[in-house]
């Protein structure tokens, strides 16, 4: 099985590649705070090794002046991978959030664009059922917006999963050709979720939603969004988190008001990463509420945007 190959890769890499081995051992010591929001929680993780991602300069000048770390020719000599289908390679991420954290780059150095790659995301979720697959858009937390890639982490870390399963925060607003479309309520961030055992209708619905948000953000290379996908039983679950903003005001604030938090899929799924200990210690429920509301769409606006797709 493909998942067995990935398990073998992970075991080998943390043994033979010191950087990866050291950082996965350090992961066991990360500090976590739990914030209760009346029925659901947001975790805040102090993970200093993630500074390379959280503080990445992703403007075109900075990206264009550095070697692409996802291209095969620029990867560390000890970083090995496993081929996925004909055009992707699964790698162990040496700066982990999860106990098993993967990066899955395309073989081609091409921009981060999900429009024609969503089907690949579904294929990965099917081949790696123990993982959640996630996509960070080019202005939504991707530290390599110039090279198309997914990431994956072991299931059951991100609160979003269990909160969806609980049935308390998301409700079906319509079904179409075997696809259930869910909208989240009172969850700090507006989320659209899709559930279906049918691959083709699921892709069709995703592209309808993609086109709707493209029309609302016409000046961008693609609509701002984070996507998390996994397969449970026979059905894929897809969580789409549309974005209004890349980073919150706190990211560039001065002095005591600064918080180096650059939300991506994992953060919006309920595990907020703080690479600085001072941010980890001082962040409050009010800060989390404000950050989520700055970067995400409110649920009532999402309902207005997608309700007529049925």
In short:
With 310 residues, the protein is of the alpha+beta class.
Quick tags:
310 residues; alpha+beta; 10-stranded antiparallel sheet; 3-stranded mixed sheet; 11 helices; 13 strands; 32% helix
Describe the structure.
With 310 residues, the chain is of the alpha+beta class. It has one domain (2-135, 164-309). The chain has helices at residues 2-16, 18-27, 51-54, 60-64, 118-127, 159-166, 199-216, 265-268, 277-282, 285-295, 299-306, and strands at 31-36, 41-46, 81-84, 88-92, 101-105, 131-136, 149-154, 170-176, 179-184, 192-196, 225-232, 235-242, 271-274. The strands form two sheets. Strands 3-4-5-7-6-11-12-10-9-8 form a ten-stranded antiparallel sheet. A hairpin with an 8-residue loop joins strand 4 and strand 5. Helix 1 (2-16) packs across helix 2 (18-27). The longest helix has 18 residues, at 199-216. The termini are far apart. The mean pLDDT is 93.
């Amino acid at each position: 099985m493909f998942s067995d190959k990935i398990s073998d890769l992970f075991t080998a890499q943390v043994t033979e590649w010191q950087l990866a081995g050291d950082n996965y051992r350090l992961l066991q010591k990360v500090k976590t705070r739990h914030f209760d929001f009346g029925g659901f929680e947001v975790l805040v993780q102090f993970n200093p090794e993630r500074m390379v991602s959280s503080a990445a300069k992703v403007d075109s000048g900075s990206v264009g002046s550095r070697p692409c770390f996802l291209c095969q020719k620029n990867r560390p000599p000890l970083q090995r991978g496993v081929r996925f289908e004909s055009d992707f390679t699964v790698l162990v991420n040496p700066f982990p959030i999860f106990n098993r954290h993967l990066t899955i780059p395309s073989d081609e150095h091409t921009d981060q664009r999900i429009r024609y790659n969503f089907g690949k995301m579904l294929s990965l979720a099917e081949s790696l059922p123990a993982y959640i697959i996630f996509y960070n858009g080019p202005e939504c937390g991707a530290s390599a917006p110039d090279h198309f890639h997914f990431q994956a982490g072991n299931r059951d870390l991100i609160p979003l999963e269990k909160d969806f399963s609980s049935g308390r925060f998301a409700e079906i607003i319509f079904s179409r050709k075997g696809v259930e479309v869910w909208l989240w309520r009172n969850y700090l961030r507006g989320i659209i979720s899709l559930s279906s055992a049918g691959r083709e209708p699921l892709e069709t619905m995703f592209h309808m939603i993609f086109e709707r948000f493209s029309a609302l953000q016409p000046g961008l290379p693609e609509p701002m969004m984070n996507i998390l996908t996994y397969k449970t039983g026979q059905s894929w679950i897809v969580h789409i988190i549309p974005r209004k903003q890349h980073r919150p005001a706190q990211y560039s604030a001065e002095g005591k008001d600064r918080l180096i938090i650059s939300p991506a899929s994992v953060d919006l799924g309920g595990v907020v990463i703080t690479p600085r200990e001072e941010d980890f210690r001082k962040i409050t429920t009010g800060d989390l509420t404000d950050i989520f509301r700055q970067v995400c769409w409110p649920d009532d606006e999402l309902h207005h945007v997608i309700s007529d797709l049925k």
